Amino acid sequence: MKLLPKTLSFSLLACAVLFAGCSKKPKRPSPSDTVLGQGAGALDPSAADLGAAGLVDPSAAGLQNRSGVFEDENMIKGLIQPVYFDFDSSAIKASERSKLQEAQKHLSENADHRLLLEGHCDWRGTAEYNLGLGDRRAAAARQYLESIGVATAKIEIRSKGDLDAIENAAEDQMAKDRRVEIIILKK
Questions:
Q1: DSSP line for 145-164
Q2: Containing domain of residue 136, as a range?
Q3: Total domain count for the chain?
Q4: How far apart are CA 12 and CA 9, in angstroms?
Q5: Are 134 and 88 in contact (CB under 8 A)?
Q6: 20 vs 15, 16, 24, 108, 128, CA distance in Å?
Q7: Distance between CA 145 and CA 16 in Å, rounded?
Q8: Which long-range contacts (CB under 8 A, 24 or more apart) does 100-107 make?
Q9: Span 10-40, pLDDT tens digits
Q10: Could you tell me if residue 29 is inside a domain?
């Protein structure tokens, strides 16, 4: 009979430790609450304070827009069209390879430039899964560029996951969210 109080005390202590260690996951911010806001996949200088977002040096001369091409002293975005992917895939379609070949050509003509490959996903899936998928997409684009002769040192990758995706979007918008942006880095 003396064993029962010790077992009960141990069980209660174990339950208290178990429940004390459990906590809810932090709530993910809504895209509309972020600096760039919902659907701000393209750099639009009139839509947000890009300096505050860390995307552009506020002391720079400013962005210039040439038919959807945004350029400042550090980067060019939109000169090469994004590479699009099928749902839940990181395989580069044959129809999208010409965009990466165009990036390779740009680098061969501009030896001081580098590339930032930014992987994106549509809103479906968990944040963790989409960050991983965005990373796999950017890595697949890097691997293809390396296979056609681009030096590894000229390529950086990062994943944005579904951070710029529009939640509950129509299929045509979700298809645009599944991409790798090709950003040219001047420095």
A1: HHHTT--GGGEEEEEEETTT
A2: 66-187
A3: 1
A4: 5
A5: no
A6: 8, 6, 11, 58, 24
A7: 54
A8: 100/141, 100/144, 100/145, 100/148, 100/182, 101/148, 103/145, 103/150, 103/182, 103/184, 104/145, 104/148, 104/149, 104/150, 106/79, 106/80, 106/184, 107/150, 107/154
A9: 666 665 555 555 555 455 555 555 444 444 4
A10: no
CATH number reported for the structural domain that contains residue 70 in this entry: 3.30.1330.60
Tell me if 123 is assigned to some domain. yes
Half-sphere exposure of 117 (CA within 13 A, CB side): 27
Q: What is the mean pLDDT of residues 151-165?
A: 96
Q: Is the pTM of this model over 0.85?
A: no
DSSP letters of 110-157? -TT-EEEEEEE--S-S-HHHHHHHHHHHHHHHHHHHHHTT--GGGEEE
CA dist., res. 2 & res. 9, Å (int): 12
By the 8 A CB rule, do 78 and 174 touch? Answer: no
